[in-house]
Every structure is written in C-alpha cells, then in structure tokens.
Fold this protein.
Amino acid sequence: MKMWNVGIYARVSSTKDEQKESISAQIQSLEEWIREKNNEKGEHYNVIEIFQDKGISGASFHRDSFEEMKRFIEDGKINMVLTRDLSRLGRNYVLAGYYLEDYFKVNGIRFVSVLDSVDTLEEIQDIVPFKNVLNEMYIKDCSRRSRDGLKQRMIRGSYVGSKPPYGYRKVTVEEKGQKMIRLVPDSSEKTAIVREIFYLYLEGWGYSKIANYLNGKKIPSPAALIDFPLAKWYRWNENGVKSILKNPKYGGIMVQGQYKKVSYKLKKSVKVAEENWIYSGEFTGIVSKDTFLKVQEEMERRKKIPSKITYRNHMFSGLMLCGDCGGAMGYQKKYEGYRCINSQRGGKRCTSHSIKEAYIKEQIQEDMGGFVKALEGAELSEMIDRWISNDEHHLQKNLLSLEKQLSKLESHLSTLYEDRLDGNISKEIFLTLSKKIEKNRIQLLEERTYHLKKLNAIENGDNEKNILKEKIERFLAFQELSRDFAERLIEKIIVFEETELKTKKIEIHYLFQLPEKV
C-alpha cells in the first residue's frame, strides 16, 4: 500500500473576517477529500501538517507558512502537497510553473489541486499553465482597479494614508454623496512642536540642532509614537526634522502620489517624478502656506553653501586653504588660529602654515572699511548702477518668460473648455485639469506681481542706491564678525608662507567684487 504523507496548504489574500473563515472552509473540503480517498483501496493519506497563510497576496511566494512547508519537503517529512485550487498555490504564473514543473519533481513531491483536477502523478495538462496565467491576470486586474480607485480619491482631495502625518488627525466627511478623509490639526503638543520646528529653522537653526533640542526636552519622535521597531529611531534625528520641513501638507497643500510600487508583485516602492505628483487643493495647515514656502526657499539657499562650511563650528573653518599644498587649514584652540592639516600628519607633507584668527578678522574689516568709504565715490556709484541695471534686465527677461507661460496656460484652458463642450472629456476630468491649470496660473500671476514691484522700485534710482548703501552699512556695523557673516561674504581664504623670510600672506576671495584699491 502506497503511503502519502500530506501537507495541506491553504491561503487567503486578506485578513478580513469573511476571508479568514474561508481558510477553514478550504481545510474542511481537503480533509473530506482525504477521507474519501482513504476509503479506497491501494493508497493511504496521512495528514502530517496543515500550512496556512493569511493576508498574503498570491503574487508573492515569500510567505511564512509556504517557507515552512518547503522545509518539511526538504527534510523529507512530507511527500505530497494538497491544495483546493491552483490560485491557492500562487497567482504568479512564472513561479507557479516553476514549483509544478521543477521544484516538486526534483524533491519527489506529488502535488494535487482538487478543484482543477491537477495531479502531478499524471502528466501536467496543457490547460494548467493557461490557468496559472489567468490567475495572475486576475490579481493584476485587481491591482489596476485598486490603484485607479486610490488615484481618484487622491484627485478628489481625500487623504489615502493609513495614518495621519504627525500633528494631524483624520476626519471623515461627506461631500457630494462621497466619503472623504480630511486632515485637521489635532491641537495637541504635536501640533505645537511642528510649528516650533518651522519657527526654529527660519531663525537659522539646522536640522541637527533642532533634533538635539527636541531630544533634550524629551519630546517623543513620530517614530516613537507608532512603536517603530528600531530603538534608535525613537529619538529625533536630522532626517525626521527635514521630512517635516519638506512635507507640503504642513503648509496646507494636499500632495499625494509621491511614491508608487515597482510592480503589483513586489513591495518595493520608488519615488515618483515631482511633475506626476497629485495636487488636490489646499486646506488649513499647521503652519501657513507662506511660512512653508519661506522654509523651502531657505532650504534651497542653504544647499548652495558647501557642506564643508555647514558643519564647522569655528568662524572660518572650511574656508581656509594652504597656499602650498592646497590642503585645508584646521582650527587649533590653543593657538587661536589655523594650521595646515598636512603639516600635522607626519612625513613632512607641508610646512606648518599658521595664521591667527584675529589677524584674518582685522584684514576683512579693513577691506570692508575701504568698501564702505568707496560708497561716497563716483566709481562705486557707477558699480551700483551696473548692479541695478543688471537686476532690471534680469527682471524684464523673467517677466517676458512669465507672460509666455501665462499665454500658454490660457490656450490650454481654452482647448480644455472646447473639449468639454464637444463632449470629448468628462466633467470630472475637466474640473481636475482646469483646477491644476488655474493653480499654476495663480502662481505665475503672483510671480509677475513680485517682478513688477521690483521693477517699479528700480525706477526710483536714487532711492535704490540709498537702500543698498544702508544695507551694506548695517551689515558691517557688527563689532564682532559672525559665522553667518563669513558664509555670506567669503568664498575662500588662501594662506601663503615664505619659509626663508618667515613671512605670511593671505588672499581673501570674496563672493562679490571689491572696488580696486588706489
């Protein structure tokens, strides 16, 4: 008598109650099949183990119980796998074919799918691969319909995330007969923390400094509130602060669809190009839209500052270069100045170039003092005129570009309206596209207004010169130079040393043109 040691395999793709119950229905029908077979002569079926995967898509074969069943197979504990139908095994036709045609045969496993009348003791029927393809087509179609439904909800402005962003709560409302999920500030400490993060950043704080400040106050991070498994993420860090500052939802701008899955078969997601994100209106944010946009501008400004400057504590760190070897000049607290780092590494790579920080400050203030005096001269007046003229030319060029873009949007809107009248597009698509066009148009109009104001200010030439002069004088009025001053003023400082003469010379390269010295 042939003895079959059976592993029953059952699977459902979601954890909903009605599907969880179908697991027991699958097992019950398979156990009934075994009882009937055991009443027949010649073979006996012994159930060794029942393997169940709940809430796992058939597109993936990375399932806990399926992997456990494979261990039973490879350890020789079972020699037969029994399923209700082929789709329980999986809906990926390539991998399903691999297990049927390869894996089970190599390991001496008999595979039986009851409803499909598939038994690998017999030759695999031609219809089986086709059924596997149909099973995959089914899950692919479900995935497509699910994605489309999700996209329509995003277009309507309904929030689709499983959890609200830090500082928000979800509210369900009904609009035009449809259920909508809206984000509302939860008026808790978290909301206040978000506002403080934006405020501190605009005050000049960096990501790390804000994170350390929040950790110092023992404020739980967003990850800590959702029991993130990695303990190190329970604390605030640079990425956590940055993600809040960059999230448009905190400025009341509903943006979704920023990520998408590579395939319905895989869990991996990729970033979507920004032009394909779904913008669906504005709402009351934790901070104002104006505050959010100011933060984005400040982020762009700080990006232009080299990273070697951003992470140094001393005034000229990251700006100092050795004139002989080209290496960096590091600050030494004892010396109260900077030395070539290559002279301190052994091997006599360079001489010990050194310069006092106080001497550099004196040189800068001397240069800037001459610059201020030159404000009274005709030469600098001509220079300011050139700067203003360049600004005027740049503004006019931008205005021309803005007018062209506005004209193009008007043309798009007109075509869209005609398509709607002719019945070529639905009302929903018309409203969605027209809203996007109108949003872009408003943004362009705001930019045009800003440029026109700047041009009007330039028309009063004398006043513009006086404003520029006052700004420079205020900028130079500080008794003590600051790190921020150095970042905005200096590109690099090169230190040369004449070894024989024992003299030093520095070259300060400013980020703007100084007047020629007479």
About this structure: Confidence is low (pLDDT under 50) at residues 228-233, 307-312. The first helix runs from residue 17 to 38. The two ends are 112 Å apart (CA to CA).
